[in-house]
Amino acid sequence: MSTIWDTLVGQRPVVETLRRAATGDGMTQSWLFTGPPGSGRSNAALAFAQALQCERRIGCRECHACRTAEVGSHPDIGVVRTEKLSITVDEVRDLVRRAALSPAGSGYQVIVVEDADRLTDQAANALLKAIEEPSERTVWLLCAPTVEDVLPTIRSRCRLVTLTTPTAEDVADYLARELDVPPALAAHAARASQGHIGRAKALARDEATRIRRAEVVAMPVRLTSLGAAMNLAQSLHAVTKEEAEAITSELDAREKTELDATYGVVERGRRPREYAPALREMERSQKTRAKRRHLDVVDRGLMDLLSVYRDAVALAVGAPGHLVNEEMRPDVERLAAAATPEEHLRRIDAILEAREQMLEFNVPPALALESMMVALALPAGALR
Known about the structure:
alpha/beta, 59% helix, single chain, 16 helices, Rossmann fold, 3 domains
């Protein structure tokens, strides 16, 4: 019988820990799930929440509790995820009030906080009070990239669950088993995603996503002049912005329709006084979300670029194993021959520096990408 644990890719020790806890062995009321992007920390937290509500405590995916949990409608599982740059204290206070309520069923009231690293200082302090003195039947599940991303006072009160990046073989097996992806495509998506489960799903399911990635990883061998560097920086900025807008535009339109319906704009043919402030707040939130989404997409593109230079270094030093970009091996071989491994490592540093400038220091993406592409450019005549 398939259970919810089968959806956690390459996390056998974690699955064993959570499976035992769901049946009462080592159960506690506060948990912190950490792991690199794409490792599935949020999926692990949600799977654990489902197992805690399951009538058989195994995440059977068959009982009423499991079915409602999987579609996100279980009354005793609350999930907070943000498309904004931070989680505010008001959002946390709403969660704390919910956590204080008795569960509707006979199990726990489970609160999952994705992106706990995005809590503001005020929000983190409000959450700390709830974690210090939880209600008897409340369980908090927090998710963050590392323990350092959470206040020491919070992490000291949580049981730590550490996920690792799954192997390409584990990801490919998951895609073939759970999503019926053809083996060759599953292997390609698994390698290209570099262990990021969500990215692997997108690459396996959507040809447009595969095409956009192919455009990005083809850039290093085209960086042969200053002009090419500037053009490719603009191209990368445009491609990532287009992808981000495609993701957010549909959600923006749906939110506008729901707002109009809430205030009766369509039915009444006029806008009540309260509509304008609500519209401004929604547009402000959408703008913040669009900025974060663009940064996320740019960041993914940078990791794709980095993988090409990583492959070039691996080839140059004779490292064992498959290339991330095995399908473009001839280009990687040309790149490896065009510069020393040390020079390519400096190019990797330039990519990581651009990433830090955008994510940590709020440098405009277009400016950071231009500086990075110039640093990546190869000397004239280097490629053969």
